[in-house]
Amino acid sequence: MQDVRVTFLGTGAGMPTRARNVASVAVTLDGRVLLFDCGEATQHQLMSSAVRFGAIEAIFLTHLHGDHLFGLPGLLSSMSLNAREKPLALYGPAGIAAFMRALPLYHTSFEVEIHEISGAAAFRPPSGGYVVDAAPLVHSAPCFAFRIVEDDRPGEFDVARATALGLPPGPAYGRLQRGETVGDVKPSDVLGPTRPGRRIVYCTDTRPCDAAVELARGAGLLIHEATYGSDMAAEAAERFHATAAEAAGVARDAGVAQLILTHISPRYTDATMLLDEARAVFAATELASDHATFEVWR
Amino acid sequence: MQDVRVTFLGTGAGMPTRARNVASVAVTLDGRVLLFDCGEATQHQLMSSAVRFGAIEAIFLTHLHGDHLFGLPGLLSSMSLNAREKPLALYGPAGIAAFMRALPLYHTSFEVEIHEISGAAAFRPPSGGYVVDAAPLVHSAPCFAFRIVEDDRPGEFDVARATALGLPPGPAYGRLQRGETVGDVKPSDVLGPTRPGRRIVYCTDTRPCDAAVELARGAGLLIHEATYGSDMAAEAAERFHATAAEAAGVARDAGVAQLILTHISPRYTDATMLLDEARAVFAATELASDHATFEVWR
Q: What is the CATH number of domain A4-153+195-295?
């Protein structure tokens, strides 16, 4: 895969404000989209983004609180009105199937393959390229973190070495990169060591916890909730959320390349304080805003 | 009551577009608000309107299709996060109570008094001033029209007559208007005939039907769905919707003062044709748009 991009659709906690909608993040992997959480009006946010409804392959719900869930029925309805036929995988905690079944007068034009997550889960699309797994977090309701793991990527192609072995640039290079032997030249002759795939981890809603650290270990990008600042540290603990500094502690302990904070309480009309508090612990931190897009390079 | 105002929050059918959100209309009666239908992102539309969440006394759902319903859980959640304590009356067809019960991890900080409508229903707020009743429509699912009937209003005060009877302008005028006798002067001596209260009728989703005509008879304002134009008349019949001309026929037959068209299909990016077709049948027609507000005078 070449192109991996994260688009924040909603970055607020609990209820929408004019600045931040409730939770949703889209991850685009070479044109295919995974949606994480689906708060109310996620479809409205999609309409004003570059992410296409039809490209969504799977939806992952961290938990069943309304600010992560209530946009799901409407999004699937609109996909149906757009005559979607392709099945859609839906992952969420136990209870998601009952919720979908209880919707009145509801049907979709396509199959929704519901997977209730218990201990762990793994999603691998038919088209391959990546896998998504899950780990339980520490919240007031059953809640899961998700990790996208891109397939290992071939090593760097050594053009000088290939030329020395008598292969000029051309279609043979592609064949070697795809693992074929060309004449006497084996892929291992011209390719560097296999590079591990990129890893993106999404952790919300949760206290800072070992499970998050383990899942995020070595990831290129950790998206972690930071509902509160240090001014509300007691409330964060009581309500099973994290402060910005606690999120940064998870990023530091996991050794990730980059941290992005999301799920910001409506009380912070200016969340600069949260960013500052996180950066004091882990420098490579950014603050998500609705419609912000980040390319993931490693 | 002095001030009666209708604010359209969503005027589209089926799915949101950038121009029209899914169904919701707020009616403000002297600062108290009745909400009719609650499509997804109604709370977002409220946030960008002058209508206050806290002023909502009751919510009426015409039917349980998602484009009229899926904003309800989120709106009530946000009211809870705003620490609402005042009970809220909720009217809708059979099934609305089960839907609310099936919401996972859900509670509200205030009592939701659910009333499932069968044949007819009547809501009268503790503070009085109006009543809301309902009548069944003709749709693909159980669906109800609603009518707000303002209490009868005192007749016009005849200042010349009061002066001739020896009463100069002053507090006595108010007492007479409230039905008290002042000295020898009875209210009937100075007040014209009692004026009937204003009537506002909301009809969606439906075929044009006698029940709508009966409910709307003599109303000051009829809000009626006009999902389609004459180009889609067959589809309107098949899908149990109305064309703009059919909506206008209901307005004409009911003898209302004004018609406003809403629930416009996303196919009409310019709905001028629908307005023209309706006005050919009933001249006093307007086309709703999101956030449009109309004062109701009669």
A: 3.60.15.10
